[in-house]
Give the backbone structure.
Amino acid sequence: MKDHQDLSFPGAEDVPGFFIFDKMHAPRPIHPLSSDLVVDKLAIGFTEAQAEYDCPVVTGAITANHYFYLGFNPHPDPSVIEDRMTRYPGFIEKTVPLVGKRWTEEWFPMIRRRNDAERNRDYSTMSDEDVFAHYFNMTRWMEELWYIHGHINFALISGTALSDFYDEIMQPSDPTESYQILQGYHTRPVDAAHGLWDLSRNVKANPAMAKVFDENHPRDLKSALEKSDDGRAFLEQLDAYLHDFGWRSDAVYDLADVTWREEPSIPLGNIARYVIKGEDENPMKAFEASVKRREERTAAIRDKLSSDPDNLAKFERLLGFSKYAYPLTEDHAFYIDQMGVALLRNYLCVLGERLAARGCLAEGQDIFFLHDKDVREAMANDTDMRTLVDERKELFEACSKLEPAPFIGTPPPPPNAGDFVDPFVDSLVSRLLGVKPPPEGEQDAGIIDGVAGAPGTYTGTARVVRSLNEAGDLEDGEIMVCEMTLPPWVPMFAVAGAVVADVGGVMSHCAIVAREFGVPAVVGSVDGTHRIETGQTITVDGTNGNVYLDGRTL
């Protein structure tokens, strides 16, 4: 086993290129099988899709001390870059705008059929040999999902093109205004939030049920509800909801993360929060307000361009592409990042139990401590992996106590004026992930310089939360200080007075949802969860991307 004293991260000289710690998708250490079957497959799928547009960038995945680092670096062969650049700008202009349409007409129907088949698969009727053979189907499918996801990454370009055009024409003082024209479209996460609200209304209408939700912690709610006929009937409703929306956890890339379907305390906690709210706090009202803002922004730019037919035609073309493409920011995550990974987990839990029954593992969940080659070895030869798993558990525990390096490798130099700016890298790395150069010169220790996510200012009490379980302690009006958010976090935005996130850009999930809920947000704070303490009074300026640690009035 690796010496615990040697848990250092690679130096710049050890890593060709530049890789960032992907706190947005994997804020905690990932298990060995997740490294092989999720993030390595991701790099393969993304790179294959990028090559189809002759993109000169390749995707790389490095797992260091069980932490996932993501890189978008130039192709290692300069002659390949030179050749691809003769076609890449043309593909961006002509084929990238069709990505949203391809999702709607081609990829989404295929993914939905496959996901439905996996959700309904009865593994109990399958022999060990059939379960083993299915391993290869599932791992190939994961690579195919990331290939499709790699295409969807390019859909962000359509959104950035529209927002940039809006900024050019309207010149708004609010840097997030141009992104409001991209929002207010129906997505599956909207359905998920509305479904939780509907369940909460069923509870609110039943005084005895409401009392159970009021008196029990979310982790105890399921057992409490099982004690009454009304409670059991409600759990049947919850099961139906979770069959559609429970294939998720608070992060996405670690196969060992337990999903809502397996442990429903998080959705039950969200329902409990909604129960005490009145109809005026229905999250659909926030969505409807977002639709109204989009329609108002659209009408305003159309009015301004009414005497400029060329630019008006350009706007309509960009808007048409974005109507297809931008909702993918939420929907692809629902079907690929969340459900796709959760369905693979579901299968691997079955495989782990079969291997445990054959003496290869002490318990089924230990499969996540194996690598791909170890799983194949166990399936083929009934090899005992228990000692190996024990060693890896010890190492994993040691790594989980580390503070991961924010990046590994050598950061690229800033572009010179007039250099080609790759719209793919700009959209994905800068505007989605929120990666930006560190500030120069001496900085005010009382100010966090982040990224403007959602407009407005708010002063209040901070609560630092690093998981959805911890977010369950968030009180109404508190400022949620988190590492990241993904769609399962949406109900928290109905509780928070403002949001500060370590990672993310103006097109990240956190920024999008904060704008829809009208909650001020600063994203890309880098280390907000370390510099801010629970109970501290702070001021969030979501319009300018600053957090004031002294709680000053602006």
Notes: The longest helix spans residues 328-357. The two ends are 54 Å apart (CA to CA). The mean pLDDT is 94. The longest strand covers residues 457-465.
